[in-house]
Amino acid sequence: MLSSLVSRVLGVLRNGLLSWRFGAGETTDIYLAAFRVPDFLYGILITGGIAVVFLPVFSEIFQKDEKRAWLFVSNLLNVLLVSLLGFSVLIFLAAPFLIAVITPGFSAQQQAQTTDLTRLMLLSPILLGLSSLFSGVLQYFGKFLAYSMAPILYNVGIITGIVFLVPLFGIWGLGFGVAAGALLHLAVQIPVVMSSGFRWHPVFSWNDQALKKVRVLAFPRTVAATAFHINFIIMTAFASVISIGSITIFNYANDIQQFSIGLIGGSFAVAAFPALSKFFAEQNTSQFQKAFGVTFRHILFLVAPVVVFTFLLRAQIVRLIYGAGDLFTWNDTRLTAAALGIFAFGVLFQAFIPFLTRAFFSMHNTKTPAIISVSSIALNIALAFWFLDILASPNMLTDFLVATLKLQGIQDIRVLALPLALVVSGVFQAKLLSLLLVKNVREVFQKELYMSVGKTVFATLALGATTYGILQIYGGVFELTTYKEVLGQFVLASLGGGIAFVATAFLARSPEMSSFWRIIKAKLRSQQH
Fold this sequence. Notes:
By secondary structure, this protein is mainly α. The protein has helices at about 1-20, 25-65, 65-100, 110-120, 125-140, 145-170, 170-185, 190-195, 210-240, 245-280, 285-310, 315-320, 330-350, 355-360, 365-390, 395-405, 415-440, 445-475, 485-505, 510-529.
């Protein structure tokens, strides 16, 4: 979780530097659009399937025959490398056609630049694919330092490209930075994997039984991952036809919301997965229900204040991260903040999706989450198309968004159709996962959960009222025209709201607050001794 936090902070810094260097304009739109195809390749072949199923298969083989396990790693590595190279060559050749489909709103010159940058960044999925395999090995042996450093160094490489290579090579410097980051991601893990016992062997067997098992287990996840990445490719295509900077505005707001989803929802999902799997294997329904309920309550306890903070402080967050330079205009800031405000409501549901999905995985059910994921993505695409049409002209929804999100004077707010669609489809996905989970495991949402939810909501209301009050008082004293004034408002409002939340949770005797307090006291005692 700590390494994830550092990596995500560096990701925010990376976007802030991009904004400082280029603003929300043509260059950032091209750079972010060029990412889509390499991300798609990496997502469907690696993170969508192989990275998830490699560890249990390797673990099973290693327990029986260590030598065979290392041969399996070499074989998978070689097959993966050949597959990634083959797909990369095909994408390299088809890049002009693919980019034309992804960015229909770009000019011919913009599409040509996006194509060239896409071809350069195809180095990234090849290097990251091999690195992800090594990450699985390191997880098995409990060697988490190099594994944790890899994503941090990846962002360091991209930041280096923005700061040092862009002045030398222009937009190509961004591509070189991505490739350098991917190389660092791989290089930091190689020595530790070698010290664990791995030695490369020139084996290549597509029909190996272990490899067949990986393909079978990975297939449902790969389908879901393919749909997920196609969804964001289509969102990029929609954004490209709106106006210059729309791709950047959408991505910047989405990256901020993903910070909380990954840090809270992702971390708890990974932590709870082994326990849920163990209790299901033992057919211990009561312990499964208890583990599920405790995890669910802790996610809500942490994500509820994040939702309120994100909505109330959306303008301050965007101004502090992206608005330091002169190229990111005030209208860019307002639209990005508005998109983030809409995304805030989706975080409440999106943060639970990784956990609910892994609850199904623990029951050896990968099909149901995949079907629900594909269905929600289809809904998202349909909604995005519908909202784009609605927001193209004045109506009740447009007037409501302009008034609520303070967008007076901005003529084109169609970019908000994309977060609106993602929020609605995210609610649909989380609700459907919950309903089907209840059908599979009775009473998974128990009485204690509802009591805890009530206390969390009460503490969150106290946080919201305190934060809003401080914002109003501070805004009445300062003009908020300088970076320091905005930073001061953000710090005071978030600190005051945080104190109100903790104090109210203590007074309400929230079990989650008590749990965190016990952990903190235990850590402090262990440090004293």
